[in-house]
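Project channel, design review

CF: Before we commit to the Tribonema minus constructs, I'd like one complete example in the thread so the newer folks can see what an input/output pair looks like. Taking GTP 3',8-cyclase.
RD: sounds good, go ahead.
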Amino acid sequence: MRAAVVRASGSTATFTRRVGLKRRLSARSELAVEDDAYDAAPKYSSKDIRSGPGLSHFINRSASEPPAAAGKSDCGGKVAPREDEDKLAKLMRQVALAEAAEAAHERQSMLVDTHGRFHNYLRISLTERCNLRCTYCMPEDGVSLQPQSHLLTTDEIARVAQLFVRSGVDKVRLTGGEPLLRRDLADVVGRISALGVRHIGVTTNGLVLKQRVQALAAAGLSHVNVSLDTLQEQRFNAITRRRGLEQVLAGIDAALDAGFGGRLKINCVVMGGVNEDELAAFVELGSSRPLDVRFIEWMPFDDNRWNEGKFVGYSSMLRSLQGSYPELARSGDERNDTTKWYRVPGHEGRIGFITSMSEHFCGSCNRLRVMADGSLKVCLFDGDETLSLRDALRAGLPDRQLGALVHTAVLKKKAALGGHGDMQGIARSSNRPMILIGG
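CF: and here is what came back for GTP 3',8-cyclase:
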């Protein structure tokens, strides 16, 4: 068995891994010459870990703190104090469990939680900024934005994506904020597409989609989701606190012209007393065009003024549409789908319901999120963010150690709804505003 010395991106350190093992994910045979992040990886020793940066660089560090300088540790390169020794010992035990489980499973254990869920879908937030101020997403007074230096760079985003793709992720979605505000978005799409993922999508408010969709398609973008909650101009201005409905509708048309038919979804958050009377109008968007419309139950996040009185559940929405479309029929769902799909006979597009609150789908969840500041979020509703991939990357950790940290975080994922029980429990909990999580 020959060995290859692989240089970790963004680091000057090299380490040896074995290559030539049979690929576990045959769909990406083009990566056969690449080393798996874990296959036959050398085992940890206390010497290996202590010679690197202390865990305080990337565990329990506030996301708003400046990252540690690369190559330095909080202990000045010396052996960590007792508190860090305990954390190191705990991490070593978790790494050992991950390696033992890997030997028994065909797929990479880095992405498998204690409930047996394999996470092959990664959502990456590219920015905290947005050019709209949607009431259910951003607090009325706005949010405090982190300095640019606290956010992942383009190279760091590509490195994170590569780490996850090598471990089994085959679907990536780029979110925000508003991801189309990033000038380098086409470059980000191109670099992730080159990793061999089967699906790379973007979720956008659509304001500048018309101007950018052709370049994104050329870079390898495969799917587009547009967030749009009303088709009425005055209502749009009230919900988003901005103008721009015509631009969004033009962006949808441009996406269809660019070839995204059948791979374009409109996401509509339904709120009582706000837009629940527009369901049929949204369905008509897909009557003669190949686009899908999804109605999303309003979810509670910090400072979005969620209240149960304005909550419109799946069953209520379905009854309303069945009154307008008696022939509405259930359609097949895909594996790990978050959407309950329906069809109106004769319509090109589908109608879907995302029922996160009334009928959650946590048992088949396959999603992980990396926020713009590099924090890993294993569940949308869990406010516990103990792993900063940003700090780990800037501390110079190789992929093997990054993978062990990710696995440790994934093992903490709760069975459902971040452990809060129901939507009332989520509403009482502390979390980021949606704008800072990334859709």
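RD: helpful, thanks. Residues 156 and 393 are 7 Å apart (CA to CA).
CF: Residues 82-104 form the longest helix (23 residues).
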